[in-house]
Design goal:
The chain is mainly α and 289 residues long. It is built from 13 helices and no strands. Helix 3 runs parallel beside helix 7, helix 10 packs antiparallel against helix 11 and helix 11 packs antiparallel against helix 13. The chain starts with 6 loop residues before the first helix and ends with a helix.
Length: 289
């Protein structure tokens, strides 16, 4: 080990920043109008925590498998495992502890949640070992992670996840996944650090990204009109967020990682905050005021 192990290094390996993705777990309870059902809210918080722990375990598993390639990457070479700050044996122990804790919490809430979280683990193992080298399939695996986050939140609400919400999240997830690949292709297009990049074409990715962005807006708009008409006033804000995100994705200096993009752009953060505030107020105004 090159450097003394510290809590800061361990937390960096767990990629706490990536926990932002687990806000998707709250989608179902917010849009089902059950946000102020305290029992279900607590269960949702626990499921979000379980996804945080398991996703960190998956990050560790991926970093162990990708250590050699990460050492060739301009940015990823500084990750704790690739740089030798965390040893492989310690990383394995940490991964097992996080995995057991996360799956245990999900099982404590309900069995369907446990199965969904276990599916997330299996998909990511297959992705890390095999599917990440299969063009297009790799992006569907990434998108599946977001969809499963929404689905696990749906296990504690009365009506589960609606068809329109499912379609909206699928298209949004693919939009972000293909956007991430586009950014990587711009920066590291040789395939040396990620084999699948050699199979991708920039024009193909551009078309897929715009298609998924359009589908996201279409599904969200139709969903608001058919099930939550009051949310139609959020459509312009969501459209702005999608356009802003597109602008950042097409900035060739960005790797287009969803979490990094959102956290690095104050306008995007502010617009997401405004949208979230509008959704809560419009859906729960009779309970709030």
């Amino acid at each position: 080990m090159k450097k003394r192990l510290s809590l800061r290094i361990i937390l960096r390996q767990m990629r706490i920043k990536g926990w932002l993705k687990n806000l998707f777990v709250f989608f179902a309870i917010i849009f089902s109008l059950e946000l102020f059902n305290w029992t279900k809210l607590i269960q949702t918080v626990i499921l979000s925590l379980s996804f945080c722990l398991v996703s960190s375990a998956v990050y560790i598993f991926n970093d162990i498998n990708d250590a050699e390639n990460d050492r060739k990457h301009a940015v990823k070479k500084n990750r704790p495992i690739a740089s030798g700050q965390i040893s492989i044996p310690f990383a394995c122990i940490l991964m097992i502890c996080l995995m057991a804790a996360g799956l245990g919490l999900a099982l404590w809430v309900n069995f369907p949640s446990f199965l969904i979280l276990l599916s997330y683990v299996v998909i990511n193992i297959l992705y890390s070992k095999w599917l990440k080298t299969k063009a297009v399939i790799d992006c569907f695996c990434i998108a599946a992670g977001f969809v499963l986050r929404v689905m696990i939140g749906g296990t504690v609400v009365t009506d589960g996840v609606s068809s329109w919400m499912f379609l909206t999240v699928v298209s949004l997830s693919l939009f972000m996944a293909f956007g991430k690949r586009r950014g990587e292709l711009c920066s590291y297009g040789t395939g040396e650090t990620r084999e699948v990049l050699a199979m991708l074409d920039m024009n193909f990715l551009n078309g897929i990204i715009f298609m998924c962005a359009g589908l996201t807006m279409a599904f969200y708009s139709l969903w608001t009109i058919s099930q939550r008409p009051v949310l139609v006033y959020t459509v312009p804000v969501v459209l702005f967020i999608v356009i802003r995100y597109l602008m950042l994705v097409f900035n060739n200096h960005s790797e287009s990682d969803p979490t990094t993009l959102i956290l690095s752009d104050k306008t995007l953060i502010a617009s997401c905050g405004i949208c979230a505030f509008m959704i809560v107020v419009l859906l729960y105004k009779t309970q709030i005021f």
